[in-house]
Amino acid sequence: MPQRTILVTGGAGFIGGHVCRALVGQGVRVRCLDSFVTGRRDNIADLVDGSDFRLLEADIRDLDACMEAVDGVGAVVHLAALGSVPRSIDDPLASEAANLTGCLQVLEACRRKGVRRVVYASSSSVYGDSAASPKQEGTEGTPLSPYAVTKVMNEAYAGLYHRLFGLETIGLRFFNVFGEHQDPEGPYAAAIPRFIARLLDHRPPVLNGDGRQTRDFTYVGNAVQAVLAALATARTEAFGGVFNVACGRSTDLLTLVDLLRKALVEHDPAVAGIAVEHGPERPGDVRASLADIERARMVLGYDPQYAVEQGLDRAVPWYVQHLR
What we know:
Radius of gyration: 19 Å
Number of helices: 10
Distance between the termini: 46 Å
Strand order of the largest sheet: 3-2-1-4-5-6-11
Helix content: 25-40%
Order of helices and strands: EHEEHEHHEHEEHEEEHEEHEHH
Largest sheet: 7 strands, parallel
Strand content: 15-25%
């Protein structure tokens, strides 16, 4: 049987690097397409010299590059995006170009080249201002940011390409993924790496608002498991659909900081005494987020192996090693 080849767009990103590593570990030949606008070479440094890994430095906004990248692959994992709510508010046009036009070009390249399956990253942001809890895939809300709008449209296009052209599209609505290799630097850094960096620097974590906002924090190992399950499933009801990828448990930001202190204190006892600071609420932020993951369990066989605490136990030592 010939070796399977899979393209991972955004493969040098935070989640992408973990997905590439997992696929290579399964004996898959991986093509990694990344423009390095947000991706980092460090995320794939252990893979680049391997015989089963090929790096294509290109941009998904370039249709010709997408056509070349998907040629001959058995499936695509589409993760490339500008993945930040605040960044999309600062620059909606850049968000649209990368997240919506880019996604459409990946889908179109797959259609033209006869690629059978596309597993793509959606986001919990599609639920917008919905007060429903937990969020089920049929829950509807008004998007609160340009980023959220692009993800809603990604899902619409993916569903359309399934219905019109038979493409086996599967959308994964990731909920606040965290873990090793997530960038703590810059104005658009995610909460967990940003908080860890400040605590290790003996500075207070800054919470936007009162700190009672809740999130379904999801360790990256769970996200990778969902991607692999979506690539492997033969369940036809998965195609053209979307699935929540989370732990099914919410944690408020004040509790999160307490968990981080406990995880870091054995590395640096001074962390125990660092308080938080409160800043203004951010435009576009969702107040509460909790996923219902039953559909992903039933259809994809998704079974998250890491609770928040277990994920932090794996991620924190990496940050201690790399931020000091």
